[in-house]
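hi support,

uploading two proteins for the ticket. first:
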Amino acid sequence: QVQLVESGGGLVQPGGSLRLSCSASGFTFSSYAMSWYRQAPGKEREWVAFISTLGFTTNYADSVKGRFAISRDNAKNTVFLQMSSLKPEDTAVYYCNKSPPAPNWGQGTQVTVSS
């Protein structure tokens, strides 16, 4: 069964940085592209960033392009999201999942950008 455990969120001031981690299990991690998604209060979950199986291809939502960087460590079954120049509108619960997503979602990690 797919299991995804996100961590690394927290409260940060505008302009700050955070690094999110997602530990995956229950499937052959290196065989799947992965993405980060987020859900802000009162909004639907949206896609944020994509990384191919070996990490050679990445894509980003326009709203985070140039500020966020996705990476992965297939030896550790982990995908990362480095977030910089954070804005209040980045406040959300962040999730990782396969791309396209599997039905199982983790608990997510809360990111709050506020002064």
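and the second one:
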Amino acid sequence: EVQLVQSGGGLAQPGRSLRLSCAASGFTFKNYDMNWVRQAPGKGPEWVSGINSGGGSTYYADSAKGRFTISRDNAKNAVYLQMNSLKVEDTAVYYCHVVRQFFDVWGRGTQVTVSS
């Protein structure tokens, strides 16, 4: 069964850090680019960051640049999102996502709440 199992997240104060993890199974993880997408309350999905299959190229939304770092460990079939200098506007449900042609899999999402 193809799965993306997420962990991490939670509640953080503005300026603090959180780390999200996503463990993949059921497909050849090292062959796929991976993404993080978030959805804030009352808003549509927003792509946050992506990483290519080998991990050598990373991409960020303007909202994440300089604060978030995406990484992956192909030996562990895992992708991570380190979020630093968190802002209230980062509050959202964060999803791990993989897509290629007709292969489209989402994690269940993890809540990140940034509040003082």
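thanks. also noticed: The chain has a mean pLDDT of 97.
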